[in-house]
Design goal:
The chain has two domains: 212 residues, no CATH class; 187 residues, no CATH class. 12% of the residues lie in helices and 35% in strands. It has six helices and 26 strands. The longest helix is centred in the first third of the chain and has 14 residues. The protein starts with 8 loop residues before the first strand and ends with a strand.
Length: 457
């Protein structure tokens, strides 16, 4: 029978002969205690203890990791604008831009009114999330679309790979510094000529603004992006569905000039973010260019990558667990802990670790099944990993998860079990920010660790 690969196994077995003298017993006990002094302490409950001779401890049982990558991910209807450019030396180059279909205002307050144009601005509100050094400036470029945001199948599902044409010349360019401006409106000045044209359409009640369909055919929307000459970070903006994306400012002429605004909202269903990636890390090239969605750590530098701009998670499996069950049919796992230790590249400035990561069960199709929940609270919540940060050396930084129930269920199911674990981002969507994590497999230092306490071996 195949013997499962064990990275470390500690077992305490005490056999006492009734004829051994009291002195010999004491001497033998001291030797045993000294030999087991590096055993990890753990609470088993009232009926068990770490010195139970029937408990076997595996310090790092065999575990395999892979990088799972989705083909594409949905980015529409998130009320979120992602724009920017960033070169991450440990991952690659990320470029983000946002497409927006502008809506016709519900009313026309300037029809046949004597008005004078003041300005046309695009309004964004940074939410405080950045990828890169947030103190760096961002150059925002705004283009007018040449294509309607419209799918041939009539649906409104747009992905990170979706794209529509825009006119070659920007209608707005402005360099801004977003540091410390979370929740504060940022206004990008747009073309005066376009603003005057829009104001005239409304003043004369031109046919282009009489229905929503005609307006969209006339003003097809915006493409918002940045360049790579000034910008070196990706920025994220909240855009509530009822907020203005464009503001046309004017004043009514009369005895006293009265300043007024005409606000343009946008179509939530037709706003989405385009996110592209080019690998610079040779280990990620194998993942980016692979025709398969799942790449073993053995094909990516003995590492696995969780990286939201690419839509990846880390799949964790236990290939020899069922073989162990065959060898010890009455075994039962008392406690199983999964410890995720970030590779040092995950900690490099200006990046930070995700404050929480989720675990889901998955199968051989890599579909997410059920989440791992905390059963100790009244209201069940997903396990987050309880991140511990070693600020001094970083070597003792880790996430930890209790996966005892999952492991016992897998053992009970036996040979028919296809389940594994997927470590995923906690973001609401892949385009909502950047979470990055590199995990080493068990051939490397500071690797993923699977601790298991087993009864009945």
């Amino acid at each position: 029978m195949f013997s499962p690969h064990l990275f470390s196994k500690r077992r305490l077995l005490i056999i006492v002969n009734k004829n051994i003298t009291g002195a010999a017993i004491c001497f033998f006990a001291i030797i045993v205690l000294l030999s087991g002094c590096n055993k990890v302490n753990i609470q088993f409950g009232e009926s068990s203890s770490e010195l139970d001779p029937s408990i076997t401890y595996y310090d790092n049982y065999e575990t395999e990791i892979s990088t799972y990558r989705v083909d594409s991910f949905l980015t529409s209807s998130h009320n979120l604008v992602s724009i920017g450019y960033h070169n991450d030396p440990d991952f690659g180059v990320v470029k983000a831009g946002s497409f927006v279909q502008v809506s016709l205002p519900a009313s026309n307050p300037v029809f046949d009114v004597n008005v004078t144009f003041d300005s046309l601005v695009m309004i964004l509100k940074p939410n405080g999330v950045f990828y890169g050094d947030s103190t760096k400036p961002v150059k925002v470029n705004v283009y007018r679309l040449s294509d309607n945001i419209k799918r041939s199948d009539g649906t409104d599902y747009y992905y990170n790979t979706s794209s529509f044409g825009h006119l070659p010349n920007p209608i707005g360019e402005q360099t801004v510094n977003l540091a410390g401006k979370s929740g504060t409106q940022v206004k990008i000045r747009l073309s005066d000529d376009l603003g005057k044209e829009l104001l005239e359409k409304f003043r004369t009640n031109a046919s282009e603004i009489t229905t929503s369909e005609l307006f969209v055919d006339y003003f097809r929307g915006l493409y918002i992006c940045t360049d790579s000459s000034v910008t070196s970070l990706v920025s994220y903006f909240s855009v509530p569905a009822d907020s203005a994306i464009l503001r046309l400012s004017y004043h009514e002429n009369g005895l006293y000039a009265v300043a007024k605004n005409l606000d343009f909202n946008y179509s939530t269903a037709k706003q989405f973010n385009q996110v592209s990636f080019r690998a610079v890390n040779s280990n990620l090239v194998s993942i980016e260019g692979s025709k398969y969605n799942l790449v073993s750590s053995t094909a990516s530098g003995n590492k696995a990558f969780l990286y939201s701009p690419v839509g990846t998670g880390i799949k964790i499996s236990f290939p020899s667990l069922l073989t162990l069950k065959e060898k010890y049919p009455y075994m039962r796992v008392i406690k199983a802990m999964l410890v995720i230790k970030p590779d040092v590249a995950s900690l490099a400035f200006p990046y930070s670790l995700p404050p929480k990561l989720y675990l889901y069960s998955t199968d051989d199709t890599n579909e997410l099944l059920g989440g791992f929940y905390d059963g100790t609270t009244t209201t069940a919540s997903l396990l987050t990993g309880d991140l511990v940060i070693d600020n001094l050396y970083g070597e003792n930084t880790y996430y930890s998860y209790d996966i005892t129930t999952f492991i016992n269920n897998k053992i009970t199911t036996g040979q028919f079990s296809k389940t594994a674990i997927m470590l995923t981002s906690s973001l609401s969507s892949f385009d909502a920010g950047v979470e990055r994590l590199i995990v080493n497999d068990q051939t490397q230092k500071n690797s993923i660790q699977f601790k298991m306490y087993v009864l009945g071996m």
